[in-house]
User: Fold this.
Amino acid sequence: MPHKSQLAQAVLESEMQSYTEGYVTAFPYTYGYYPEMNPIRSVFPILRKGFAVPRFRRALELGFGEGVSINIHAAATNIEWAGTDFNATQTSFARDLAEASEARVKLYNDSFAEFAARDDLGEFDFIGIHGIMSWISHENQRHLAKIIEKNLAVGGVLYNSYNTFPGWAPMIPMRDILSLYSEKLGNSDLLQGINDALAFAQKLVDLDGLYTRQQPVIKARIEGMQKHDHVYLAHEYFNKNWDTISFARMAELLAPAKMDYVCQANYLELVDILNLSRDQIEFLATIRDVVLKESVRDFLMGAQFRRDYWVKGARKLSAIDRDDALRRQSFALTCRRDSVELTAKGVRSVVNLNADVYNPVLDIFADNQPHTIGETEEKLREKNVSLSQILEVVSILAGKGSLAPAQEYDSKIQRCCQSLNEHIELLARAENTMNYLACPLTGGGVSVSRFDQLFLLALKNGLRKPGQWAKFAWDQLCRTRQKLVIDGKTLETDEENLAELQKRAESFERDRLAILRLAGIAK
Assistant:
């Protein structure tokens, strides 16, 4: 992610805030990865809710930003991908990633209006939209809905995430003030303008007005914003268009495309007991209308951001077909077995997980190899662990990031992932750009820090020992005159930096390297 000094320079090179259709373009969006955009990840929650899932052959991402997610998913699966983003600079970076991987992905530089008007796209089995609906005009929202209506195949899956009520409701007046301040009194340097707007908002909160006392969450939000990366703040709060969308309005927007809401994409939200009281669960069970039920759920959970899976013409499976399909699903442990804590954090509280159920499941997955739910059920039959218990364990462990859906992969996927990952690792020599690598085992991205990427690059250069990896990483930092910063303190000497990198390299060898090898990422 760019440093603040780099962001300031990017802004200073522009005479004023740059907007395209109301969207901030003074500097690129963050290099984020969003696992819910992985079609493979959508299968389990949709099946768990009892609905059929298509075979994913073609997929589309609308508003791909820097192209991290779309390129990882194109490299790590046999799915053919397409996407569009109006920002030419971002599209150029994304195309470099695509060229490096040589995966099947076509990246357009069309606006949503232009993309909706195309007649050469064909149908897609999966469409992903992350957050975009909240940052564009109502007209562009309708263009996205038209693309879904026109290009999503019958039975196809839509992933759509967006800011929602009631969690955002208290903050809307403050966001309007931030936007007005930026518009009326803002600095031509967008970075400084954000600092000024936040300082103004802090003074307003400190005046302890009635609305602030009525909505104490505002004070905490402003304090949190002061610590946030300014790229994120620019795109989240300072676009010309900023929309909080209720589930009911989203359902209305998608109705012409014949979309049926299926479930939340967040695995932890599949487990009601983590997020709702028993009384609340029973109350929701009395509501048959989907739109009303989800609106009430959002109210009970104070929802601020929704991650939804929808299906065009959702088809309900029989109980037998549902359970058989779930038994065929494979998962793999993505961390060391002994690092998994038996707790889970939901909306309501942190819950202690039943060791008598979780430990036997974790023991099966401890080899970090893929295992099906059916295989797990069979091995645990004598321990009286039921299929429903296993499904809950998988939901929670995958929601915590300890498990991930797994796939069988071929040499093409392996080759595309290796090529893309080496390109990302080479970028890490100069700056902390992308903290994810493509994983053949999961068909998605795995979090790998900049320095772990440099250690992997050192391995590819024939260096086998942690001390050599540390020296290699330090040589790269020296080339760009960078030093490590620990707890806000810069390590000034070569010896201090090498010692810290040596510790990190040893930790990488002990805790991560073997797992990355099993996942097909490291050699």
